[in-house]
Each structure stands twice: as structure tokens, then as C-alpha cells.
Amino acid sequence: MAEKISVLLSEEEVDKKIRELAGQITGDYAGKMPHLICILKGGVFFMTELSKHIEIPVTIDFMSVSSYGDGTESSGRVRIVKDLDESIEGRDVLIVEDIIDSGRTLSYLMEMLKNRKPASLKLCTLLDKPERRVTQVTVDYVGFRIPDEFVVGYGLDYKQMYRNLPYIGAVVQE
Ligand code: IMP
Ligand code: MG
């Protein structure tokens, strides 16, 4: 089935928001060196842009997880496909994610990472769909709260496609 993509958030809106978030993070972490953890693959476009506008030193690492599910639903059973390269003990960790939907993936991940004893652990997401929340998760930085629509672009995929769109679009089935 073909699908159409309609622009929900333009490239300019996304860029502006990312600069705002980077400014907040720069202020909040003054005197510290946040360790940014990107959740692959969706978080990668957001994390690179965000980190470029943070005006204090940062370090970065990557983690890849798979949430068993039917493709558009996560189940909460999270498997680590690629773990972090470095220890996070004593570090100021900021998880960078593309979108929080049910919250299952992130609530599981946050618990797991807490056990590794970081000095602090916060969460930054480009998009949040609060209506869809099933599991409570504290989000410290949110780019945009969006309605319950399936979105693509800026790292987000539909069947692995559309990650490279420079804007956020909603998928419309034809
Ligand atoms: P959660 O565990 O339900 O919060 O799932 C979060 C993950 O599901 C995100 O990191 C995305 O990979 C994926 N996801 C949730 N909503 C969307 C969407 O609208 N478009 C693309 N991927 C999504
Ligand atoms: Mg994701």
C-alpha cells in the first residue's frame, strides 16, 4: 500500500527547537560534561544536531535496543542489540531519543542504566506522544508534544524508510 507524507513540523521549526533545547542543556549542565547517549537508529539525526549546538564539552556513546513488537507497537520486552562502549558510572548521562510513545522502551532502559550508577540520568526527546503513554517515564527535555499520529523523518522510520527526511511528517495511508 502506498503512503503519503504530510509535513507536520518543518525543517525550520525542528532546527529552531533543537537550538532552544541545546541552549537549555548548555545552561543546565554548566561546569559539567554531559555524556550523551543516543538510542539508535532513530535518535541519531537529533543527537548530532543537538550536540552541535551545545556550547560546553560533551562526550557521546550509542546504544541499540530492540523492543519486540509488531512494528508499530513496542512490547516492553527490550533486548540490547548494541551496548554502550564506555562505563557511565559517575557520569552525567543524558539519553537522547527520537520519540516517547508508550514509554515502555525508555522506562526499561532508564531502570537498567540507573543500576550502572551514573552521577545523574536525564532524558531528552525530540517528540513526545503523551496520549499514548502506558508506562510512566520522566522526560526532562521535550522538543514537541504531538498528537497520536505515526510520524517519520529526522531519524524516525516507517518500515525503515523516510529516516532521512529533514522534517517531521505524518504518514497518510492512501
Ligand atoms: P515506546 O516504547 O512505545 O515508547 O516506543 C518508542 C519507540 O517506538 C521509538 O523510539 C520509535 O523507535 C518507535 N516509535 C514510536 N512512535 C513512532 C512514530 O510515530 N514513528 C516512528 N517510530 C515510532
Ligand atoms: Mg527510538
What do you see in this structure?
This protein has 174 residues and is α/β, with parallel strands linked by helices. It has 3 helices and 9 strands; from the N terminus they run βαβαβββαββββ. The strands form 2 sheets. A 6-stranded mixed β-sheet has the order 4-3-2-5-6-7, with helices on both faces. Strand 2, helix 2 and strand 3 form a beta-alpha-beta unit. The model has no long low-confidence stretch (mean pLDDT 94). Bound molecules: inosinic acid and magnesium ion. Inosinic acid binds next to strand 5, helix 3 and strand 8. Magnesium ion binds next to strand 5.
Any chance you could write out the topology, listing elements then pairs?
Layout: E1 3-9, H1 11-28, E2 35-40, H2 44-53, E3 59-67, E4 78-82, E5 92-100, H3 104-114, E6 120-128, E7 141-145, E8 151-152, E9 168-173
Parallel strand pairs: 2-3, 2-5, 5-6, 6-7
Antiparallel strand pairs: 1-9, 3-4, 8-9
Helix pairs in contact: 1-2
